[in-house]
Fold these 2 entries.
Entry 1:
Amino acid sequence: MAPIYSRIIATGSALPERAVSNADLEKIVDTSDEWIRSRTGIRQRHIAADGETTGDLAFLAAQRALETAGVKAAEIDLIVVGTTTPDIIFPSTACLVQQRLGANGCAAFDVNAACSGFMYALGIADKFIKSGQTKKALVIGAETLTRMIDWNERETCVLFGDGAGAVVLEASSEPGIYATCMHADGGYKELLWNPVGVSVGFKDEPNHGVRIKMAGREVFKVAVKTLDSLVGETLEAAGMHEADIDWLIPHQANLRIIEATAKRLEMPMDRVIVTVDQHANTSSGSVPLALDYAVRSGKVQRGQNLLLEAFGGGFTWASALLRY
Ligand code: COA
């Protein structure tokens, strides 16, 4: 029997309308455009409007991906949403999106792997398709991370933004996703976390203490080292070499982390998709937003090999090597 591959047949994305520049942030917190750009590469981020939710962005991104694919919602038999900022505790954002799309009946669930959420969701959906259980899957990464930010905390507030991206995956005899890798190490949990919730309780603080806490310099070091070995592992799993990769589509957290991974792959920066300057770190939204930009701008062409990777709180890290 010929192997079953999952192929990305279309992409879509959604960003909140409001873009906030570094100069805008200078007015509310002790920072500067120069500091933000030189340390992170970020120039602006999009911020969800009052009442605009992760589910709203996920729905729009999914709708655009389905329209581009020419696939009806009723044909989808799996929806996986990577998110760490669901609209409500339950039902999952995947169920909320499913209902709005009219895809009722198919399996739908969320994956919380922080910034690696979309990469985990893609890896899981790939396995569903390879098992023969799923023919068409909708995989979404969506976040409203700015809801977990203290705008007085300059160490974190300049880094994040909101947004969503989606792909339609289809079972095919043509490649396809060649390899996916997924890892986590909860031993690092305190370097990047949001330690409030249903069981441990909330706090008598603004926004009930819901905010990201991060040891930036330590996260940076582990991210660079971990992504270095992740891309090597992914190439090996796919039986490929650095020179086989046409495009690196990395998690968009920090331009310096992206440059370090590109160097490891011996890839010039003109073969790396960079959107961190426009979107900042949108967590699970970041890789599918970058992918949709790469496809719609005409950079990524059918038949090219793409290496997607992400790293985030947990720590979690995950990747996919695929032919687009
Ligand atoms: N504006 C101006 N100054 C700031 C600032 C801001 N927004 N945030 C921090 N600073 C200051 C610090 O207070 C520190 O001041 P000090 O030297 O007087 O103590 C100084 O800038 C340098 O801080 P440092 O931590 O050395 O900066 P850095 O070069 O490590 O860059 C990060 C900081 C957060 C940008 C960087 O560590 C990073 O990107 N880490 C990874 C974060 C990440 O990607 N997280 C998500 C993973 S999914």
Entry 2:
Amino acid sequence: MNKNVRKAVIAGNWKMNKTRPEAKELIEAIKPLAENAGCEVVVCVPFTNLETAVNAVKGTNIHVGAQNCHFEKSGAFTGEISADMLVELGVEYVILGHSERRQYFGETDETVNKRLKAALAAGLKPIVCVGELLWERECGITEEVLGKQCKLDFFGISPEDMRKTVIAYEPVWAIGTGRTATADQAQEACKYIRDVIASIFGADVAEAVTVQYGGSMNAKNAAELLSKVDVDGGLIGGASLKAPDFGEIIKAASV
Ligand code: PEP
């Protein structure tokens, strides 16, 4: 990570885990570990835990995120939650286009783009996930896939809004599998994403934008991944559910 221009963002993606009492307990355990963090610390919790989390982090440097939002402001969209509803709760971040949403819930680059515009308009800080399938990497089209996702997901976004958007490079084959990209693979992909952003929004926006790595990042491999100049933090699933492990990753991003 280039610390002169960017601050690492370490975000936990709790996925569909934790009841409200469990969420409170985990945040209480993370608090002392995040106290002196030299990076931005975010916990992206299930919708049912948002209010609990917002209250639990008051007075700390921990920020709360959701894991999705709808693109319409309101209306007949049963089961959905709008960006304004999140803001009203005190939520600051929202994950968009996670591969599990793309894989299991029909999320497309078009809907990610619409959700991104709604999130930015509401004042949320989006974390937009992009990444290739194993098959796509093996076929040698990782760059094409990342380029296409960036062009479509960020279509029509202003340079100012792009600066506020966090990009999470998440190779799908590394998510929840225990199979991490090597630090060099993560660097190569994050750098490529930054180059695509430069070609669309200009070099200054690309230098400022946060590009995280996500995919089985843990207490052991975080330091090496985060040592790479274009890896500006992490989106962490499994390891974010264990306070000591999440604390180690925060520490690795703070040096
Ligand atoms: C994720 O959910 O975004 C993720 C990277 O999960 P894990 O760390 O468990 O691979």
